[in-house]
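worker-03 picked up job from queue 'complexes'. Input manifest follows; two sequence lines, order preserved.
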Amino acid sequence: GNSVTQMEGPVTLSEEAFLTINCTYTATGYPSLFWYVQYPGEGLQLLLKATKADDKGSNKGFEATYRKETTSFHLEKGSVQVSDSAVYFCALSDVNQGAQKLVFGQGTRLTINP
Amino acid sequence: DSGVTQTPKHLITATGQRVTLRCSPRSGDLSVYWYQQSLDQGLQFLIQYYNGEERAKGNILERFSAQQFPDLHSELNLSSLELGDSALYFCASSVGQGRNSPLHFGNGTRLTVT
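worker-03 finished. Artifact:
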């Protein structure tokens, strides 16, 4: 079945450091890909998405490019802030007979120190 | 604020009991999804409804059931509760069902079974 694998956390960085969180997927067909972020005590929020190969999703300084050849969707940010501390989830959209479900990776906890 | 409302925020109950979790989707969203988040299993898709009809089922136990009402709110019923059912239960909604319909998550109900 479809699956998503994320780099294991936790990840700890200093403010203004460069961030990469790796995400690879296994899927049949052409899923859409998403990054969600979960701040403490809150639900998941959509961070960015890409719907086809070579699409780049971007939001709040974060970027991820849909790479079909490497089945990857790595999340990057050039200069992280303390407020970026959260858990990040990579996900793919699994559509079967018209019904969608999101398949999530295990999540990567990110801590940014001042 | 995602616009998805979940009640209650916290629930503490004993083994063998039954509870009902409630979800009101964003205005205009027809699809409702239920997810379970636990430390060992991560985010697991349980079930999806679209405009009152069940559309997709995931790893939902037979002790669990859900429904979506004509006003589009949804309830997740958990019965014969076990210690292992302790988790965060998230509801999400989307406008449609397709791969390009991002999910919007509520803040979750934290269930503790003692």
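worker-03 released lock.
Chain B has a mean pLDDT of 93.
Chain B has no helices and eleven strands.
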